[in-house]
């Protein structure tokens, strides 16, 4: 795979560090496609990430969010000493997947069922950023001195 050099971008823009970092991260080849995953939009402001983690127990999985970066790790405990495989087709190897989250996207829940780790996400805009309706005041007829308003 061909790598792209973003260093000229860093030299010519100011204040776009995060954008440049996102571009650089997006081009980094995650060496393998393991484990496979889906990203699904479930609602206007809701998403779900499903990761195939067959063979992993909940205590072997770790989900962490730090500075808009969702990291999912799987660390398989060594339990193969007593097992003798004739064929080993299930990968069951350690992994780390990272997902860059947009601002105000939070993890709401995670669950493990049928070999799929499901992570639910929701965009929660602060009240100050939500659109709000502004009422338009109308000018009332000028009052004549001594007259009461109706």
UniProtKB/TrEMBL annotation:
Record keywords: Stress response
Pfam families in alphabetical order: HSP20 (PF00011)
Residues in SHSP domain copies: 28-139
PROSITE patterns membership: SHSP
InterPro entries assigned: A-crystallin/Hsp20_dom, ACD_IbpA/B, HSP20-like_chaperone
PANTHER family (alphabetical): PTHR47062, SMALL HEAT SHOCK PROTEIN IBPA
UniProt similarity note: Belongs to the small heat shock protein (HSP20) family.
Protein's name according to its UniProt entry: Heat-shock protein
């Amino acid at each position: 795979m061909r790598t792209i050099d973003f260093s000229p971008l860093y030299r010519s823009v100011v204040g776009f560090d995060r954008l440049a970092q996102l571009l650089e991260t997006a081009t980094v080849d995650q060496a393998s496609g393991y484990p496979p995953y889906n990203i699904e939009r479930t609602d206007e402001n809701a998403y779900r990430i499903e990761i195939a983690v067959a063979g992993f127990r909940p205590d072997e999985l770790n989900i962490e969010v730090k500075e808009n970066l969702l990291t999912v790790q799987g660390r398989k405990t060594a339990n193969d000493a007593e097992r003798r495989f004739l064929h080993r087709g299930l990968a069951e190897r350690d992994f780390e997947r990272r997902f860059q989250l947009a601002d105000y996207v939070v993890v709401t829940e995670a669950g493990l069922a049928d070999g799929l780790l499901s992570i639910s996400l929701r965009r929660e805009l602060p009240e100050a950023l939500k659109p709000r309706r502004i009422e338009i005041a109308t000018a009332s007829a000028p009052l004549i001195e001594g007259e009461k308003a109706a």
